[in-house]
Amino acid sequence: MIDVENFIKKHQLLQPNDTVILAVSGGPDSLALLHYFSQLKDKYGLTLVVASVDHSLRGAGSKQDLDYVRSLAKEWELTFYGTTVDVPSFKKETGMGTQEAARTLRYRFFAEVMNEVEADKLAFGHHGDDQAETMLMQFTRSALPEAVHGMPVKRPFASGSIIRPFLCLEKEDLVQYCAAHQLQPRHDPSNEETDYTRNAFRKKVLPFLKASNPKLHQHMQRMSERFSEDRGFIQEKAEEVLQDIKMEGGKGGFTQFSKTVFQKQPLALQRSAFHLILNYLYGNQIEEISYIHEEMFFHLLDEQKPNASLDFPRGLKVVRAYDDIMFTFNSEKEESILFKTLYIGEQVSLPDGSTLSLTAGEDSWEQGKHDYVCDSHHVSLPLIVRNRKPGDRMILRGMNGSKKVKDIFIDQKIPAQLRDTWPLVTDQDGQVLWLVGLKKGEGCTRNPSGTWLRLQYKK
Questions:
Q1: What domain range includes position 311?
Q2: Any binding-site annotation on 25?
Q3: 353 in a labelled binding site
Q4: Where does it live in the cell (predicted)?
């Protein structure tokens, strides 16, 4: 097959003396792969290993497929690795669908074999019609360009790479190849069922499209390669955007960045960076994420409200607090109500580990925003350290009249999620003396008597 060898050279799928694992099920595609690589073996100096999986889905039939592949490997004097996996039980354990569970177990086995023999390549018999089916399914399921890419010709896997040298062919080419070389493929009856989405596309959609364009498989493969090249460039640039984003914890972690800085980037890079963030936090982007979530996110960036949040699948929360954007899986825990009594000479600990201490003396000089001094004769002791309450007001230094604590938070652009846990200090009469580290009250500093109370906040 001249087309295949040219395809292999174009994409640099093989190197001299590679160790190649052939994924063989016994069907026409993988049987053609086995025979073709056996013919190519001496030309490239390849070491070939055959790997096959019985998924326990068709009883004796799938076991016979495994035995058949084993016998072929023996006949052609190739090393063989085979296994039987329990897909039905794995489905129950994980809640996966049949196809996803089978693929997970199959690839797990292939990775083990690759690492054991230190293989360079894992070859599959996927062909151009498979590629067309895959891309059509991706078009149907998602409006996100990132989701439409087809199967890569080559990608990293385990100790080496997965390669798909038959993507330049259509199914009929492989059927004819098997007939020309008197190969006897096994037949999987589940391929005729239309209960599975892929089979439905194969039986109902693809024939119609191929009638309009007999070279559909080539058209879709070129499109896949172009998508891959274009997306690779955009992703490289989007990764540069991530340099301005705080990312910690990997899967299940969090990210934080400036809305203003993020929106200076071209919209295409913003979109790609958004999906890279999701890949980072989810481990790989999940099917529940759709273009709707993308639209929700960009609406969050553009809306006028300074504080807002979104709930994404699997507990991911996107929070906007003024210019600050955060993605986090940390659920908002019920904060215990802060209410502590503070006497002269004592210190109290706050929920975040910081402390507040109270001393008395003759010095009225304040040392910055974490130090607060008031006249002892104008307050009722002991002092109270607590969270804000609805209706809280305070008289600010240099201001006539009082102001709502709520309005102070808004003026100072304090994120909404921090306001309810922000500590404030009052006296026994409820006079708000200090919104800790933020604003100081004036009511107890007029007409001082000479004895001063000092509150000190330490992080």
A1: 245-328
A2: yes
A3: no
A4: Cytoplasm
Token representation of residue 348: 């109290």
What is the end-to-end Cα distance of the chain in Å, rounded?
Answer: 72
Q: Is the pLDDT of residue 186 over 70?
A: yes
26 is in an annotated binding site: yes
Q: Are residues 79 and 137 in the same domain?
A: yes
Whether 358 and 216 map to the same domain: the answer is: no
SS (HEC) of 136-178: HHHHHHCCCHHHCCCCCCEEEECCEEEECCCCCCCHHHHHHHH
The closest of 298, 304, 245 to 271, measured between CA atoms, is 298
> Can you tell me whether residue 319 is helix, strand or coil?
strand
- Is 193 in the same domain as 51? yes
Tokens of residue 112, six digits: 């083990």
Could you count the other beta carbons within 10 Å of the beta carbon of residue 227? 16
Tokens of 431: 């006079």
How far apart, in whole angstroms, are the C-alpha atoms of residue 246 and residue 149? 29
For 370-405, the pLDDT digits (tens) are 999 988 888 888 999 999 988 899 999 877 788 999
Nearest Cα to Cα of residue 277 among 264, 292, 265, 294:
294
Does some domain include residue 237? no
Give the chain's domain count: 3
Cα distance between residue 71 and residue 230, in whole Å: 44
**Residue 29 labelled as part of a binding site:** yes
- The answer to whether 423 is a known ligand-binding residue is no
62 is in an annotated binding site: no
Looking only at the bridges linking them, the beta strands covering 452-458 and 355-361 are antiparallel
